[in-house]
Each structure stands twice: as structure tokens, then as C-alpha cells.
Amino acid sequence: MSSISRQIVLDTETTGLEPSQGHRIIEIGCVELIDRRLTGNDFHQYLQPDREIDAGAVEVHGITNEFLADKPRFEDVVQDFMDYVQGAELIIHNAPFDVGFIDAELERVGGWKRLDSYCRITDTLVMARNKHPGQRNSLDALCGRYDIDNSQRQKHGALLDAEILAEVYLAMTGGQSVLFQEEQGAEQGNGEGQRIRRLPADRPALAVVRASAEEQAAHEAFLQSLGDDCLWS
């Protein structure tokens, strides 16, 4: 029996860009995937940072100090947050940014190790750059590439971005293996236990990512480098 795969798709919003300059987390948003299915067991928390939010950051996420005035501090929710993520694989876009801020908050509270001591971390930006080299791989760009609706994303928000990233991650890592699934025959041992399962007609079409002109040219140059006997020329 295969073990359950638990993944947490995580995003944060912050007061600025550098935790080394004293900037703080002001929002954490997480959604849970169990065996690649959203469970609805989300974690979402706004946080009081005890410092001013940079004007540029407010323009990005729209969160103000006035809104956060009555919100808890990170030390008030750290136990709940760590209980939620511990042992899971964290899916994060541009992971060094979010992980750097979380590590700084854990260090500030004291008594905690680095986040990667409790979780395995997967960076979807690295995945996207490997899968689509030379192309834009922001979350918005990936939404366009995989035909994912992000029309509600007028400003950045940690929970909304985590929900969108979950869809992007599933699209990026989805394979054609879903087309063929094991199906029990009418009788055990009749040799017909492995059959092709037809997909329903109303199933959304799989995303097709076509090679760019530059990629096609690079492929052709590689084939020519193999010599005249290349079978694919």
C-alpha cells in the first residue's frame, strides 16, 4: 500500500524585501494537497509586524498597518503554523524568499530550527525554469502558459496566490499517466485486469506547450550536429 503524499502550497506577504533589514511577514497562506487533491484544510493568518510596511510593498499586496493593528504576532501563531506544516513537502514559488522570511521569524522567536529541518521544500520557480528555459516564469506567466484563471488576482494575497500556485503546480507536474489506469476485470484472474479507461468527453483538455521558434532552431542545430546519418534529420 502506497503512503499518503501530503503537500502544502505556501505563500507569504511581507513588509518589504529583505528580512536582514528587519522586514517581517504580515500574511501566511497555505493550502493542503493530499495525493494531489485539494482538501480544503487551509492555513491563513494575517500578522502584526510591529514596524511600518514599505509603500512599495503596500502597492503590491494592499495590506496596511491599520488593517494589521489588531492581528496576532508571529510568536502567537508559530506553534499552530509549525504543527500544520511539519512533515509535509512545501511547494513554494521562489522558495528562498519565503523560507528566508520564515527562518528569520523562527530565529526571532527562539527555540526553533530552520524550516527545512521540519519539511522538504520544492521550489516551483526552479522547476519552471528547468521546464521552460529562457521564458518568463512568474506566477502570472505560468497561469497564462497553463490556461489557469488568475483574473481575481488584482493584488498579491498569500492565500489566493497559494491557491493559484497549487493549480500551476498540478498542471506542471501532471503527466499522461492519468490516461491509463488499472481497472479490475469482471472476474479475478481472467487476464483482463489492465484495460484502457476512456476519459469523459467533458474533461478539460490537457495543456499543450508548443516549442518556440528559438527552441525549434536549437533543436534543428542539434540534429545537424549529429551528422548526415541522423535518423531524425
Task: Please give a structural write-up.
The chain is an alpha/beta fold and 233 residues long. It has a single domain, classed as Nucleotidyltransferase, domain 5 (2-Layer Sandwich). The N and C termini lie far apart (46 Å). About 10% of the residues have low confidence.
Task: Please describe the structure with a list of short key phrases separated by commas or semicolons.
Nucleotidyltransferase, domain 5; elongated; 14% strand; alpha/beta; 233 residues; single chain; 6 strands
Q: What secondary-structure arrangement, pairings included, does this model have?
A:
Layout: E1 6-14, E2 25-34, E3 37-38, E4 43-46, H1 55-61, H2 65-68, H3 74-85, E5 89-92, H4 95-109, E6 120-123, H5 124-131, H6 139-145, H7 158-173, H8 213-225
Put the structure in a nutshell:
With 233 residues, the protein is α/β, with parallel strands linked by helices.
The average pLDDT score comes to 85
The overall strand count is 6
Tell me the strand percentage band. 5-15%
Structural class: alpha/beta
Instruction: Assign the CATH class.
Output: Alpha Beta
CATH topology: Nucleotidyltransferase, domain 5
The count of helical stretches stands at 8
Number of domains: 1
At the fourth level of CATH, the homologous superfamily is Ribonuclease H-like superfamily/Ribonuclease H
Our Rg estimate from Cα atoms comes to 22 Å
